[in-house]
Amino acid sequence: MSNASKRRAENQAILAELRAKQKAKQRKWNILVYGSFGLVLAAIITAVAIVVTGAVQERNAATEAAKKPIEGVQTFTDLSRNHVQDAVSYPQEPGVGGDHAGVWTNCGSYTEPVNDQRAVHSLEHGAVWLTYKPDLPPEAVSRLTELAKGNRYVLLSPDKDQTTPVTATAWGTQLTLDDAADTRIPAFISAYAQSPNSPEPGAACTGGSNG
User: Does domain 74-192 have CATH number 3.30.1050?
Assistant: First the structure.
């Protein structure tokens, strides 16, 4: 073999060795990248599963609790249902029913007090009205907001005139509470949102007034 042929063979061997090392390095890099990605993805899936499972368990617990009598619930009967234009003075705070405005308050979360007469119309449609004193701690308000979120028949607002920290109200039904973390609140929502006890369950809680 000539010297030129030897050099060419040596160069090819060196090149082949470099390519082999490069491929080995790339394989290690791929294992590192995809392995790390897999671990991150697995962690995300696990975290989501925990959150979803917790939410499902909480909802199931509220549903089961709603099947039993809820301690402290007061009921009121013989409530009028006339549509009026004037202000109404309700015996309870907030009102649990009675004469009310011709337009309802849209369900959802409000940071300012809403019109009592319109909110009572929402109760007539099967809404649950959660109210709280304006000085309730922000973390407690956030908890109530989470309870109201995603429920088309929950109305949440502050109420400067109520005497207890939190009140849950449905048509003809009311529960006063000292703690926004009280497990009776989700049970009350499960029991009374769209309850057949309301005069017009299934009627809209949208398309009315914001406030």
Answer: no
